């Protein structure tokens, strides 16, 4: 098994089918053949048809009880058989050349891991300004979002995702990978030509400009009211009404 694609999911019946359709297309385009790619849905005690949809699309389903996103991702990784681990959120759609692009990057020996990058499923003034603010950070740090990937050995070497935090576990993983790669003269990579399509459901629910209040609220919580930050994080990332 060359690739394991791990999808954490909690009540994602509305979004999971469209992701899995794009995964099927990408498996069909992979030069190593679709049989070299397994798809694992880490089902975080869903109460809708998430698990049934995953089974119907030929995915392996791993049930995860702990309601912490890092634990869900790690549970999928423990069940994986692939040499390369990839992680993508259930409301995302992947590019048809995803697996070929990741393999080309890793085969250079210069890349420790990274992410595909994304384009948004729709644009608005608020979303465009949010991207304009975030993109310089991507360029400066080399860290992006979308389909996150690394070799299994490196994932295990850094201890996987942190299970002591309810958000930003993906940022921490990339920081740990970057630190590991620097010791070997490697960097984080971005596929660039195989960007995923990111959902805008947070903007749909919270408003076009919500990201700016999110940043302010997060900073206030970190500095002044950590318990309020935890309650807000639970609502924003863990609520079934998202």
Question: What does this molecule look like?
Answer:
The protein has helices at 16-29, 50-56, 69-79, 98-107, 125-141, 152-157, 169-182, 201-206, 210-223, 226-238, and strands at 3-9, 37-43, 60-63, 84-87, 111-115, 118-120, 148-151, 187-190, 196-198. It has 242 residues and is α/β, with parallel strands linked by helices. The chain has a single domain (3-207), classed as Spore Coat Polysaccharide Biosynthesis Protein SpsA, Chain A (Alpha-Beta Complex). Helix 2 (50-56) links the parallel strand 2 (37-43) and strand 3.
Defining traits:
single chain, 242 residues, alpha/beta, Spore Coat Polysaccharide Biosynthesis Protein SpsA, Chain A, 7-stranded mixed sheet, two-stranded parallel sheet, 46% helix
- CATH superfamily, by name, is Spore Coat Polysaccharide Biosynthesis Protein SpsA, Chain A
User: What is the SS-derived class?
Assistant: alpha/beta
Strand content: 15-25%
Spatial ordering of strands, largest sheet: 3-2-1-4-7-5-8
Shape assignment: globular
Named CATH architecture: Alpha-Beta Complex
Biggest sheet, open or closed, and with what strands and sense?
7 strands, mixed
- What is the CATH class name? Alpha Beta
| Number of helical regions | 10
- How many domains in all? 1
Cα(first) to Cα(last) distance is 34 Å
Radius of gyration, Cα only, in angstroms?
17 Å
Regions with little confidence, pLDDT below 50 for 5+ residues: none
């Amino acid at each position: 098994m060359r690739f394991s694609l791990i999808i954490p999911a909690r009540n994602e019946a509305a979004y999971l089918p469209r992701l899995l359709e794009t995964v099927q297309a990408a498996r069909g385009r992979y030069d190593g053949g679709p049989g070299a790619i397994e798809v694992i849905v880490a089902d975080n005690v869903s109460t809708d048809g998430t698990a049934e949809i995953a089974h119907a699309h030929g995915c392996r389903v791993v049930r995860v009880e702990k309601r912490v996103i890092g634990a869900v991702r790690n549970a999928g990784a423990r069940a994986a058989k692939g040499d390369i681990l990839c992680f993508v959120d259930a409301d995302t759609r992947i590019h048809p050349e995803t697996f070929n692009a990741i393999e080309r990057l890793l085969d250079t020996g210069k890349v420790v891991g990274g992410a595909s990058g994304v384009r948004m499923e729709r644009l608005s003034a608020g979303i465009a300004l949010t991207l304009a603010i975030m993109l310089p950070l991507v360029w400066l740090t080399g860290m992006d979002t979308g389909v996150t990937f690394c070799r299994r050995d490196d994932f295990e070497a850094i201890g996987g995702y942190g299970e002591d935090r309810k958000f930003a576990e993906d940022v921490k993983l990339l920081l740990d990978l970057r630190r590991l790669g620097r010791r070997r003269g490697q960097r984080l990579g971005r596929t660039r030509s195989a960007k995923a399509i990111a959902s805008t459901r947070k903007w749909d629910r919270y408003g076009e400009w919500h990201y700016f209040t999110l940043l302010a609220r997060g900073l206030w919580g970190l500095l002044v009211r950590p318990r309020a930050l935890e309650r807000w994080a639970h609502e924003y990332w863990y609520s079934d009404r998202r």
